[in-house]
Amino acid sequence: MIRVKAPFVGFIWFLLIAAPLWGLAQPSSAPRLYIKGENIQPDYVEIAYEINHAGFVELHLFSPENRKIWIKGKVSDRGDTDRVVDYIRVPRAPLEPGKRYTYQLKYKGKTYNGSFYNGS
User: Fold this and answer.
1) Which residue of 23, 31, 44, 109 could cross-link 89, Cys pair, CB 3.0 to 4.6 Å?
2) CA distance 51 to 28
3) Segments making up each domain of the chain, as ranges
4) What are the angstrom distances between the C-alpha of 22 and each of 57, 76, 83?
5) What mean pLDDT, rounded, does the chain reach?
C-alpha cells in the first residue's frame, strides 16, 4: 500500500472542492440573452432584454393564431465586457386588444420565447 502524506491529501481535497466552485464563479463567455420583461405603454409594447456580447437581436412577433405578423431587428453594439440591457418597441396600433401575443428573440443562433397580453 502506498503511504501518502497528510499535506498532499489535504491539497487533493482542496482541489476537489475548489475546482467546481471556481467554475461557478467565472463569468460565462458564451453569448446569452435574458428576457427582462415587457412594458405595455399606450402606443407601444417595449420588450426588454439583456445580452452579454454585442450583436444583432431579431424579434419575430406572432398573432394569437400563431401567424408571424411582424419582424424587427436591432443591433446592440455597446461593449463586449458588460451585460447590456436594451429593448425593442412594437407599435400597438395593429394589435388587437384583449389578445395574447407571443414573440421570439433570436440572438447568436439561439431562440428565446416570450409573450405579452395586449390589454385594452
Assistant:
1) 44
2) 12
3) 33-118
4) 31, 30, 21
5) 85
Instruction: Give every CB contact of residue 111 below 8 A, 6+ residues apart in sequence.
Output: 104, 105
pLDDT of 105 over the 70 cut: yes
Nine cell digits for residue 21: 466552485
Measure the CA angle with vertex 100, ends 31 and 61; round to 5°: 45
Q: Which helix (H) or strand (E) holds 117?
A: strand 110-118
Q: What is the DSSP letter of 65?
A: T
Residue 120: pLDDT band (50, 70, 90) is confident
What 8-state DSSP symbol labels residue 108?
T
Could you say which DSSP state residue 28 is in? Answer: P
* pTM for this entry: 0.72
Closest CA to 103 of 45, 31, 30: 45
For residue 108, which of 54, 65, 64 has the smallest C-alpha distance? 54
Domain 33-118 = CATH 2.60.40.2550: yes
